[in-house]
Each structure stands twice: as structure tokens, then as C-alpha cells.
Amino acid sequence: MDDSENPSIIIGIDFGSTSSSAAFLHPNSRTKEIQALHYWPSALKWSFDQVPRGAEIQSIVYYDPYIEVVGWSGNREEVVTAQGNLKPGIQATPSFKAQLFPPTDEFRNGLLPPGKTVEDVTVDFLSHFRRSVLEQPELAWRDSRGSFQFVMTVPAFWSDETRGEFREIAKMAGFDQAGEKLELVSSLEAALFNAHFTRPSCFNQGDNILVLDCGGHLVEGSTYHVKSTSPLRIDRRTSVSVASCGSAEVTRQFTAIAGSKIDKARFPAHGRTKPRMRLRAKRAFEKELVFGDTLGRPGFKFELPPEMSDGFWVADLGVEMDCPEADLVEGYMVFSEDEVYSCFDAVVERTLGLVREQVQAMQEQNVQIQSCLLVGGFNRCHYYNRKVKSGIWEYGVTTIEVNNKTVPFAKGAVLAGFMP
């Protein structure tokens, strides 16, 4: 820690593929409480995919018809209509982060604005994100420019060369200016720092901890040896296992099933009705099943209208019609139990394949993993979380989940900033 008269304010930034967040701590704070930043522009607090995010915002850039960035001012109407929909003419670019230095060619490229590269979109997002961070009320009392130490999370599988390329992108976005500092920390290490700070007894000196980050697009894991706990010192013992099997892959699987049904509905192929139906189905699936609080809980059952009681779950697609061949009843599309669970089970299997890689890598060193720190937003899905934990337990490894749902990676990045 800098003990000078005006030490830097440490700002942790979690730059995720689906959500981003920030937290800070002033070194002179008496309580040493790390605070999450909450005051984001209202258009950014509005979620394009309608998934609640709390103190986080969606990692997304909105462009107007002239390919200018909008949505970061106080005017929500730049992006959102009075009815709560995306304003006509605005192009949304979610998932751009997943296109930036992906682990393999598995990721399907998303649409980018004309003339924009993924690096350009990343600069646009980070520059506005940085400006919004520094304009938040909690930081408004700062007494001088250049008194910030930014610590930003990056995927653990990124090489030193990739980190260097990303640092150049961050510089173009305004980070690492004269008098400021920019440090990069892997999301897995940030998770370890946050877990130890929140619950110091969750692991001991000498433990080997598998950290498994189940995120929006990627799931990655690696095993760390705890060299000491006061202060926390860790050493990575394995290569990073990574795959594109996050919650977005579950949504992709579902979208394919729903799209096949919708194609059978009696609507013009080139009209606007079918795309709207697909979007409504996708949003309902993510909100109610992927990030809802029902699927996977013991004894749960979805409440269905009597005429649809043979189904497992239904999505309101906003149309008034029946189409048996499309499983559409009074505007509700009916999905079977097998259809829903098939979207999750392949992803669970790939996740457990990463766990298996880590267990085998440690066995080759004649060392056993004591615990698995399970982190990442995908764990909010009870079904996925329960299946993954069950698979981990089969290896004789206990699981650790720290009850700290408020920007844990950003807080872990702040803590990493204190390490010499």
C-alpha cells in the first residue's frame, strides 16, 4: 500500500463478456470497506436482454444510425422508447467482448457496426465506462487527476502477448494516462482474493484450490497453491482449462430449438413477427430459466394453463394464434422437459470436462485438489450449479461458494491492487 500523503484510489474493474462492474477503496478509509459503484447512466442500467444485474451493467455498446456511441448520457431516450424497448435505428452490440482474443474458433462472430472492428467497439465501451466511473458521486471528491490505480480483470487463459495487446487497447480508451496506473489481473486470481477477504477461513495455507469461473460465454478454471494466507500468496500449478460453454451457449441451444418451432408458424418468412417471437422466447428463457430462481430447486414445478398441462414450460410470444405443429397454444409456445434440459446438459458435461482436466493435471504431479472455488454469474442458475457441484464432488473435491453476490470480481481486483 502507498503510505504517501495522497495515496492512489484503487479502482477495480471487472470487464466481462456479458456484464461489467466497478468497485473502489480509498487507502485512507477507516472501515476498509470496498464499495461497489452503482450510479450508471439509466440507458445502461436498462438491460437489453432484460436480465437483472444489480450493480453491474451489460457489456454492450449502442450506436446511432451515424455509428456514434449513445446511451452514456443521462438521457435514457437516446436508446430506450417509452415502452421500454430498443429505439428504432439504434444498433446494439452485445457479446463483443467474446470476440476479443477468444480461446478457439468456437465462438460465432456477432454483428458489428459497419466499419467497426471488435477492437474499435472495445475502445468505445472502455472509454465511456472509464469516464462514467470517474463521474460517479463516490469519486467526485477526488482532489487531483492522476491519483488513480486501475486494476482490471482479464481472462486467465490470455497469454502475456495477448495481455500486451489488450493493454494497448485500454490505453486507446484513456487508461494508463500520465500519473495513473493500470494493472491487469486474471479473473480467477481476483476471485481468490475476494473469497479470502470475504471469508478468510475458506481455505488454508498449503491447500490446492481449483478456481472455476462459470461466466456468460466462457468457463475457465485453473488450480492454485495457497503459499500463505496472511497475506494471501498464491501460485498457479496448472495450465488454464477453458471452453465456450457459458450461459450464452445454453441460450444458443435453446434459440435453435425455439427457432425451429417458430419457423413452422404461419407467418411471412420476411416479416417482423418471427424475429420478435424469437427475441421474446430468448428473453423469457434467460429471465425465467437461466437466471430465474425456479429451475433446479427441489420440488419445483412451473405453473401452466390447463390447456398446456402436458408441457414443462411455456413462453409468451406475444401473438394471438394456435399452431399445433409449432407447439403454439393461444400465443404460448410449449416446451417439453427434454427440450429444456437438453440445452443445459451438454454445457454441464463440457464444464465437468474442464474439471476433469484439472484433476488429471494435478494427479500427474501426485498432488490432490482440496477444494473448488465456484464463481461466476452462471452459478445463479440453480440447475446448472447443482449439476456442476454434483460432478465435482465425485472427484472427492469439496466446493466453496462465497456469499458475496455484489461485484465480487471487481472487489477482488481492488484487493489485488494492494499486493506488492
TrEMBL record:
Gene3D superfamilies reported in the protein's UniProt record: 3.30.420.40
InterPro entries in the record: ATPase_NBD (IPR043129)
Domain of life according to the entry: Eukaryota
PANTHER family: ALPHA KINASE/ELONGATION FACTOR 2 KINASE, HSP70 FAMILY PROTEIN (AFU_ORTHOLOGUE AFUA_1G15200)
Name of protein: Actin-like ATPase domain-containing protein
UniProt organism field: Aspergillus puulaauensis
